[in-house]
Amino acid sequence: MPQTSPLLLRLLACSTTAAFQAGKIIKDIMAKGELGIVEKGSDKNDLQTEADRSAQKCIVASLSRLFPDVTIIGEEGPDNDVGDVPLEWIIKDLDKGVLAGSCPMEFSGVKAEDVVVWVDPLDGTSEYTQGLLDHVTVLIGLAVKGKAVGGVIHQPYYNYKINPETEGRTLWGLIGLGVGGFTPSDPCSDKFIVTTTRSHADVTVLKTLETLKADEVIRVGGAGHKVLLLLEGKAHAYVFASKGCKRWDTCAPEGVLRALGGVLTDIHGKEYDYSRDVSYPNAQGVFATLKQVNHADLIAKIPRELKDRFPY
User: Fold this and answer.
1) Which residues lie below 8 Å from residue 238, measured CB to CB, with a gap of 6+?
2) Which of 215, 222, 217 is nearest to 206 (CA)?
3) Which residues 6+ apart lie within 8 Å of 105 measured at CB?
4) 77 to 27, 168, 200, 259: CA distances (angstroms)
5) Can 125 be counted among the known catalytic residues?
6) 20, 31, 180, 284 — which has fewest CB within 10 A?
7) Residue 202, Cβ neighbours under 10 Å: how many?
8) Separation CA 212–CA 196 (nearest Å)
9) Contact assessment for residue 154 and residue 24, using Cβ atoms and an 8 Å cutoff
10) Residue 72: helix, strand or coil by DSSP?
11) Is the pLDDT of residue 244 over 70?
């Protein structure tokens, strides 16, 4: 690994390779058919599988090996003991495409204590168990001094209906460097499209969508998948007026989106803090837009009565 490369660039390169490896593990477990499903809470859609647990071990072990002083927070618990991780799961090569980039000056001197890595090893677990595999993503977000600045979104089942042997695709982004792994597309200009939750809609979610007067609403699972729709130009905004998301759901998507000039905030327009000691829930909802969309104008359309349901 080129030690001359700045820490953040090396961490992004490691995260890109680790996300791909985690995707292979997710597919292997699905192929074996032994998902090991457990319910994490009272919500029937809040599930954990053997794929979630194993993918997180792969990612945490890989990152911890090379970056022992960086804080890593994963969805599947704070236990970062990597002693029982199979050696073949731990990645040894870093993504050359990322390392070939020039680290933005603002991040060239970032130190380990400034960084928090937020890991969702399998975003869209409910969809994974239902066979909606194109909703599934692996998310690794990079935050510097509390701000989401970059991340990785890996789709293990990308295009799988056309190519069952797909290796998936891995998208990465860093503010000031740009994105890799895909070609962004502009959204259509003749209608306004919003993406939102597939399985967690309630009255507040529906009323918020009504106020935006979208021409089309796309309901899918997973925060990573929803932001992918923005990156691909299939939607203009991702709106979720609910408390269901957590920091590991949004850090990576926000980092990649911001690398393209987009914005992700809460329902009030305030950025989330990704520092190591914050509370995990995104209790004020999620509102993300492409750079072609006036983020503030859209948020201004949401009535105060609805915003007041998400107090600080």
Assistant:
1) 194, 195, 196, 223, 226, 227, 229, 230, 264, 286, 287, 288, 289
2) 217
3) 176
4) 22, 26, 23, 28
5) yes
6) 31
7) 11
8) 12
9) no
10) strand
11) yes
Residues 6+ apart with CB under 8 A from 296: 269
Residue with tokens 């477990």: 29
| Tens-place pLDDT, residues 17-76 | 999 999 999 999 999 887 877 766 555 556 778 899 999 999 999 999 999 999 999 998
- Options 16, 17, 125, 265, the catalytic residue: 125
Helix (H, G, I), strand (E, B) or coil at 132: coil
Does 235 have pLDDT greater than 80? yes
Q: Is the dihedral of CA 273, 279, 280, 286 positive or negative?
A: negative
Distance CA 14, CA 98 (A): 9
Q: Which residues pair with residue 142 across a beta bridge? A: 117, 150
Report the distance separating Cα 275 and Cα 144, nearest Å.
8
User: 4 catalytic, yes or no?
Assistant: no
State how far the alpha carbon of 121 is from the alpha carbons of 5, 93, 268, 288, 306, in Å: 26, 19, 28, 21, 32
- Catalytic-role residue among 16, 17, 49, 52: 52
Is residue 131's pLDDT more than 80?
yes
For residues 271 and 58, give the distance between their C-alpha atoms in angstroms, rounded to a whole number.
30
In sequence order, the β-bridge partners of residue 179 are 173
d(CA 261, CA 239) in angstroms, rounded, equals: 18
Tokens, residue 243: 């408390």
Say if CB 135 and CB 49 are below 8 A apart. Answer: no
In 75-155, which residue ranges form alpha helices assigned H by DSSP?
96-99, 125-130
